[in-house]
Amino acid sequence: MERCRSEELYREACTLMPGGVNSSVRAFKGVGGAAPVFIRNAKGAHLWDEDGNRYIDYVGTWGPAILGHAHPEVVEAVCRAAKDGLSFGAPTRAENVLAHLICEALPSIEKLRLVSSGTEACMTALRLARGYTKRDKILKFQGNYHGHFDGLLAKAGSGVLTLGLPDCAGVTPGVTADTVLAPYNDLAYVESLFQKMGHEIACIIVEPISGNMGFVRGEKAFLQGLRKLCWDYGSVLIFDEVMTGFRVAKGGYQNQIDIQPDLTTLAKIIGGGLPLAAVGGRREILDQMSPVGPVYQAGTLSGNPVAVAAGIATLTALKAYRSSEGLDAWQQLEKQTKTLVADLQDCAEKSGISIQADCEGGMFGFFFTQSPVQNLDDTQTSDVPFFRRFFHSMLNQGIYLAPSAFEAGFVSLAHTTEDLAATRAAVGHALEHAKAG
Ligand code: KE4
Predict the structure, then answer these.
(1) 268 has catalytic annotation
(2) Rounded Cα–Cα distance for residues 107 and 109 (Å)
(3) Which atom of ligand 1 is closest in space to residue 244's alpha carbon?
(4) Per-10-residue mean pLDDT, the chain, length 437
(5) What is the number of the ligand 1 atom nearest to the C-alpha of 122?
(6) Residue 277 · residue 304 · CB < 8 Å
(7) Which domains can be identified in the chain, with CATH numbers?
(8) How far apart are CA 427 and CA 75, in angstroms?
């Protein structure tokens, strides 16, 4: 498959933007190759690049395209809103409509604030938790990603009590000094931390299913344990459902496992592909936020009417969806995604390749390794060079996967059985190609 135009555009982009991209993972550094694919347009489950190649898309712009790209109802809503003005910097009726749709789907959310990105939502959630508890420490998990907020770009120091160290240049030790890290799915470790410093911990922030070290499921007992610890010590439990929200279930994974966090962050699907996110939760915590309470927060484009229109159209279409077999959106997504994962496992078995694959709703992931994956250390047993060969073979067969061995994948309601059959065929060839080295 030729991608000369992408390579040409990439060379130009690299003279204009760091790494030729506006978000790091897009640069294909995790998989190598001459250039990332420059997308010209998308429709439904498919992408077309600047060379005219067509791909079945399993990235879905990292989650938002759950209906499929350029869904007519979403495009129509965006065009209609845009004709009435792009931004007012003032409240609108539509923000009430979107807030109602979110609160109706997630009972743990009594009030919310709309913002423009998942990073902003998580940053605001942490500030709220600190303002509400008057404590400084925040606890996150290795391998969880909550956006590029300085305080969360931290890596574990040595020893249980050593606080976070900067995990990238430009982040100061002072900023990460109040960040405590723990291994994902390790409740005993978190319990020991709380025994030592629980009354200093403002909050725990966790991806209930992690999609940022690959697909790694938060065990129910682990998440239930976090819920109990936060109740016992007066800390705030934050579920970062930026990726899982409306993806793995109506509302979020919290509804599937029946655990109510104190705060939830959402983005991606609630904006339908436009810049929109939210932080929501218990009323008494949200009312700590300005202009009601002392925790300052603001944003010129927060609740932007065009983005809100895309979000309302997306959530409304999801709610109304029924397949020809009478399945709702999440039953349909689960059916298709389970087929995809079963095909991956079946083809890997036929090729004698070890794979750990899992999915929930319309989100999936896989690692080429023999052992189960429950935390960041386990992900490192994955055969990354094998993944890279597999990725490029799939790409050259017209299947667009996340360009990293440590990301999740996404199925949309626009993916057909024909798309899945074509994907299965490509997987078989790609595994044999990757085996050949
Ligand atoms: P944004 O600031 O990128 O909108 O959201 C940050 C964020 C927060 N929380 C979770 C659970 C997330 O998955 C994300 C962003 N996800 C990545 C995918 N690994 C976005 C892709 C990118 O960074 O370009």
Answers:
(1) yes
(2) 5
(3) 11
(4) 97 98 96 97 98 98 98 98 98 98 98 98 98 97 95 76 80 93 97 96 98 97 98 98 97 97 98 98 98 98 98 98 98 98 98 98 98 97 98 98 97 98 98 96
(5) 8
(6) no
(7) 4-70+325-436 (3.90.1150.10), 72-320 (3.40.640.10)
(8) 33
